[in-house]
């Protein structure tokens, strides 16, 4: 079997010196022997060290920004639940009116209804399984 690879950071075990991790002097954090610096991250099994402080562009992916999760007020949730109890699908003008009355976007109302239908189906399935378990 081949010998174990040398550590990627810290003090080398033998006389062969290892290169220091990327940007150690710039960050001002000298690596401790055998302990990876707090800012060092391994990328998969490549064995390369990347400093998060020196490569901030790796943090965000290009393209769409991540959507911020909507926090609904208790009044908005009560009204949405009331409408869902009345009908499980809202389209067109109904969705537009509900969204404007709740000061939400149509997209937020649409997604809430989609998520609520999934929750309703899951609850219905669990109730059916509980009934079957009691019977058999």
TrEMBL record:
Cellular component terms per the entry's GO annotation: nucleus
**Keywords from the named record:** Developmental protein, DNA-binding, Homeobox, Nucleus, Repressor, Transcription, Transcription regulation
**InterPro entries xref list:** EMX-VAX-Noto_Homeobox_TFs, HD, HD_metazoa, Homeobox_CS, Homeodomain-like_sf
Q: Which GO terms describe its molecular function?
A: DNA-binding transcription factor activity, RNA polymerase II-specific; RNA polymerase II cis-regulatory region sequence-specific DNA binding
Q: What is its main location?
A: nucleus
List the SUPFAM superfamilies.
Homeodomain-like (SSF46689)
Q: Which residues bind DNA?
A: 65-124
- What superkingdom heads the lineage? Eukaryota
Provide the protein's localization.
Answer: Nucleus
The Homeobox domain covers 63-123
The Gene Ontology biological process terms listed for this entry are: central nervous system development; neuron differentiation; notochord formation
Q: Which PANTHER family match?
A: GNOT1 HOMEODOMAIN PROTEIN-RELATED, HOMEOBOX PROTEIN EMX-RELATED
Q: Any idea what this protein is called?
A: NOT2 protein
Source organism of this protein record: Erythrocercus mccallii
The gene is: Not2_1
């Amino acid at each position: 079997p081949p010998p174990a690879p040398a550590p990627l950071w810290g003090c080398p075990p033998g006389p062969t010196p290892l290169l220091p991790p990327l940007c150690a002097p710039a960050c001002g954090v000298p690596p401790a022997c055998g302990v990876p610096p707090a800012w060092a991250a391994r990328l998969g099994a490549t064995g390369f060290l990347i400093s998060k402080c020196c490569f901030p562009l790796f943090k965000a992916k290009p393209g769409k920004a991540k959507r911020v999760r909507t926090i609904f007020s208790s009044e908005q949730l009560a009204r949405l639940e009331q409408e869902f109890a009345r009908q499980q699908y809202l389209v067109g003008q109904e969705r537009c009116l509900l969204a404007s009355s709740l000061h939400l976007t149509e997209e937020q109302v649409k997604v809430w209804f989609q998520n609520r239908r999934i929750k309703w189906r899951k609850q219905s399935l669990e109730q059916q399984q509980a009934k079957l378990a009691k019977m058999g």
